[in-house]
């Protein structure tokens, strides 16, 4: 039986010109997780991360904290799998505004942005393949499942660094037998995933099963963030 550790990236740079960069808090969250993994285990045999900068930087912070530095004996080397990328939230916001006539304000107020985000993604999950979204929700979920299957085929334990939306999609798939009900469950999972939290999936003869969701005991309270 294999185990996958799905890690959400560290805090990105909300409100900055480039969101896809870890904040100083995000870097520290990654280092703290690395130290915790080195102490508590399991030591990963395989490492995979998405192609986004925040994924790569989170892995670099984890490796620094754990002492898994490139070139050292036994240090795991990371592979890149673009299927672990997050959905394009800006495209979802824009398409929602186009489809409904709503005004989307790219505000730096976190609470206001969260409200816009939840309304827009709810529309996205319900719109179906003909809803005009560049990546329909069903295609996004299928991509996430393909990434999980590819990671499960690697020697384990396997550490994956990805994004909250991807982890939420997989968690919903693994606990909800009715595909039509995955969207609302995804939304509930997606709003509570902490940065650098760990979600464990076990893979055995009967397939993949969700073991834990959103573990973050490694984070002291000041480092717990969700955006």
UniProtKB/TrEMBL annotation:
Key word Transmembrane helix present: no
InterPro entries in UniProt: His_Pase_superF_clade-1, Mito_Ser/Thr_phosphatase
This protein's UniProt keywords: Hydrolase
A UniProt-annotated Pfam family: His_Phos_1
Signal peptide feature range: none
Name of the protein in question: Histidine phosphatase family protein
Organism: Nocardioides daeguensis
